[in-house]
Design goal:
This protein has helices at about 1-5, 20-35, 65-70, 75-80, 95-100, 115-130, 130-140, 150-155, 160-170, 180-185, 185-190, 200-205, 205-220, 225-240, 245-255, 265-270, 300-305; strands at about 10-15, 40-45, 45, 110-115, 320, 330, 335-340. The chain is mostly helical and about 350 residues long. The strands form three sheets. The chain has a three-stranded antiparallel beta sheet, with no helix packed on it. The protein has a two-stranded parallel ribbon with strand order 1-2. Strand 1, helix 2 and strand 2 (about 40-45) form a beta-alpha-beta unit. It is elongated and about 90 Å long.
Amino acid sequence: MVVDDHDMGVTHVIRGDDHLINAARQKQIYDAMEWELPVMAHIPLIHGPDGSKLSKRHGALGVDAYRAMGYLPAALRNYLVRLGWSHGDQEIFTTQEMIDAFDLPAIGRSAARFDFAKLESLNGHYIRQSDDHSLVTLLEDLLKYIPQGPAIAAKFDDSIRAKLAQAMPGLKERAKTLIELLDNAGFIFADRPLALDPKAQAVLTPETRQLIGRLRAALEDVAPWTAATTEAAMRTFAEQAGLKLGAVAQPLRVALTGRTTSPGIFDVLAVLGATSACPASPIRPRKKPGKRLASGRLAVHTAMSYAFPPALQDNQSRSQERCAYGWFRQRTSGTTRWTQRPTTKRQR
């Protein structure tokens, strides 16, 4: 190792403090060969949330695994450089700022703890600061590394990309990883009828389904089809029905997205109604023979189709959080472990 470092002109040897014992032996070789001794720095190790040496059970995975879990390279670099090193109170660094500011004496003497919650928070910041079109590109690139990626990639065309870019301002505000971003955008490219999560199933009662039917009739003549015009029409409908806007918007949100949370419902309507046809959807709106749907009204007509009948999803284990597209995050005694294998019969 000493010979290799000398032949390659290595000037700095920076490694974990568990290699400190090797430094004295290697120095003797340098002295015997009368070679210039490189700068040697032994820095504290990164520990898991429980304070023990970081291992796979804590989530010490390869870089490719973090890519598949939806972490941006810039966010991961930013997080790693701040583990055990500081530069005043600054938390967010560009790559060039890291290069300019980094200094070995600023490295702390105590071991840092790897915290997934902090990494996700930082990653969410980078996602929110990213350009909408660049996020669409990143999502499409992510599909190469997740189990369901090829099936989703087959649905991507210029129309889907345009809808994703249009919906991105609302989508990225709620996502901490690209996996969450892709999962939240699923209503744009999902097969119909949509599968409803358990909370969404509770919203679609017989009364709310009838409400959606009346709302569809109220929205049929909206033109032009935009977020602003649909909002005005829905507010008018809610006032005439003696209901709060939320009591009208939430059932429609569930019918259109399959969830109780989504971007603004008016933005959802604008995105889904941007075209007069949806080739990815096998659903045919209920309409009178010979009546052709006007451009932009598909979302309203298909809302009823999405709501009847709702598909059921199995309840998920409380001890594990099912992350989209193949990853499971298990929390036990304050620690987090990532795995691609379900560990309960219910998840299998």
